[in-house]
Amino acid sequence: MTLPSMSPANRTRRSAETHPLTWRLRDDAEPVWLDEYRKKNGYSAASKALQQMASDEIVQTVKDAGLKGRGGAGFPTGVKWGLMPTDESMNIRYLLCNADEMEPNTWKDRLLMEQLPHLLIEGMLISARALKAYRGYIFLRGEYVDAARILNRAIDEARTAGLLGKNIFGSGFDFELFVHTGAGRYICGEETALINSLEGRRANPRAKPPFPAAVGVWGKPTCVNNVETLCNVPAIVNDGVEWYKALARPGSEDHGTKLMGFSGKVNNPGLWELPFGISARELFEDCAGGMRDGYSLKCWQPGGAGTGFLLPEHLDAAMYAGGIAKVGTRMGTGLALAVDDSVNMVGLLRNMEEFFARESCGWCTPCRDGLPWSVKILRALEHGEGQPGDIETLEQLVTDLGPGRTFCAHAPGAVEPIGSAIKYFRDEFEAGIAQPDSVEPLEPALQQ
Q: Where is the NADH-ubiquinone oxidoreductase 51kDa subunit iron-sulphur binding domain (predicted)?
């Protein structure tokens, strides 16, 4: 798979002041290794954090900046860090990076890991200092072979340079970092399933409480953050809270920038670092270049396969969590999909739900049985073999597998696109209902 690249025009406009995540990217898309990264102000934030800031000061800085998780859930990062125990006797604790990027139509973390590996390492080093974690793991999607190779080389570079290991920057802080490749399971994106997998167990979500901050990997306090989330930390430490907040568009309730993208039959599919609050129309028209000749936009998803479909008139929505919520769905990962007018929604959903059904861990009944049931109905509708009541059954499944009805968030995300597709394109589902064979009326003599 070739990773969609940023356009040269976007590259020339990037700067450290406006694009904290991507300004260091090379035009040839090669990894930025240690020497180049340090020339581009790399590890200066880590030096500041370890030598000049106390752990609770780093936590408070991230909390004040309003950094939220970039994996889709959007939980405030500083608040999550604050849940870790302050008891110094609990001195064995872990920082886990969730790099199990298996949301269909999402590749943002891959770009950061393959091209800016030291940004992630620096972000984890600062975060570990804030959490007083002595060891970190990057839990990486197994299919990301290039990312694993690049990250391991970058970790070796950092360790050789004294940026990992013992007494980093003479601060007395020790931190070791390792890459752990998973077996390719979508459910490992759920933090407790990730922890189970890291321990060598079956990748099922755990009951909460206890939360990982209290009882995580190997029973120790643990914090799990997404790749993009951790990559925001160095710039916040270096440039401050007010600068970070000012990056977003006025009116956005989320702060900073976000990696956003558009795929599908658009003229310029790709990935861009953009301020929160930019309109989806700007992302679609100015960055992605609109639809290719011969195609028109039928609908779009704002952030991965687990978000609801929206119509072209929703493109004026602002790209932040609250802005997308106003039009009825979630921002998710921020990487949008353009669905063109040649696509039948029933077939598209059948393909999506086959993925989600296969990736269910099978732990709870609604998800284990409900998602295959949706696939069976969608497959019948796709082939014109649906039965009266099938659409209503799908709608009931959307309710029964919704938030709070299942053990984790896998099923609610899986069925959200079904509900929105029926809402906006019900006629395409109705077209899949088999029509009863016409019956010739009986002759009068037989009727008697």
A: 346-391
CB 97 within 8 A of CB 178: no
- In eight-state DSSP terms, residue 266 is B
How many helices, marked H, and strands, marked E, lie in the chain?
Answer: 18, 8
Compute the Cα dihedral for 184, 186, 190, 193 and give only its sign: negative
| CA torsion, ordered 350, 370, 424, 342, to nearest 10 deg | 0
- Same domain? For 405 and 332 the reply is no
Q: What percent of the chain has pLDDT over 70?
A: 94
CATH number, residue 172: 3.40.50.11540
175 φ, ψ to 5°? -155, 130
Length of the chain: 448
- Burial class, 158, CB count within 10 angstroms (exposed 0-12 / middle 13-18 / buried 19+): buried
Q: Are residues 84 and 21 in the same domain?
A: yes
**Cβ contact 446:381 at 8 Å:** no
CA dihedral (167, 157, 257, 44) positive or negative: positive
Cα 302–Cα 374–Cα 108 angle in degrees, nearest 5: 30
Percent of the chain with pLDDT over 90: 87
Q: For helices 108-115 and 117-131, give the axis angle rounded to 10 degrees.
A: 100
Q: What is the pLDDT of residues 23-36, one digit of tens each?
A: 999 999 999 999 99
How many Cβ atoms are within 10 Å of 130's Cβ, its own excluded?
28
- Exposure string of 265-300, with b = 16+ CB inside 10 Å and e = fewer, is bbebbbbbbbbbbbbbebbbbebbebbeeebebbbb
Please report how many Cα atoms fall inside a 13 Å half-sphere around the Cα of residue 97, on the Cβ side. Answer: 33
| Residue whose entry in the numeric block shows the structure tokens 């649906």 | 386
DSSP structure string for 10-71: HHHH--TTT-TTTTT--TT-----HHHHHHTTTTHHHHHHHHH--HHHHHHHHHHHT-B-SS
User: Which residues have a Cβ under 8 Å from the Cβ of 172 and sit 6 or more positions away?
Assistant: none
Got the DSSP string for 186-209? GGGGSHHHHHHHHTTS---PPPSS
Residue 18 has pLDDT above 90, yes or no: yes
Look up the CATH number of the domain holding residue 266: 3.10.20.600
